[in-house]
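User: I'll paste a sequence; please echo it back and then give the predicted structure.

Assistant: Echoing your sequence first, then the prediction.
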Amino acid sequence: MMSEMNIRKELAVLERMTPGELREKYRELFGDESRSGNRQWLYRRCAWRLQALAQGGPCLATSSCRPALGLRPCSRERII
């Protein structure tokens, strides 16, 4: 689990990222491509995910969590 200081450092790094870098970070955190290139939206989603992971938030690998969070199924999951 991340400490509060580490989370603050990660958030400071996110604040300095370009939209392209944030899209890469989004892919790393969510395991999916972002359809948005909006810097503020990407920052907020990445910041939320970092904080959720630090607090033991939901695992996005489980398909039951993804729709509840408004996320598309992973590309490796079949849609019936």
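Residues 76-80 have pLDDT under 50 and may be disordered. Residues 24 and 33 are 8 Å apart (CA to CA).
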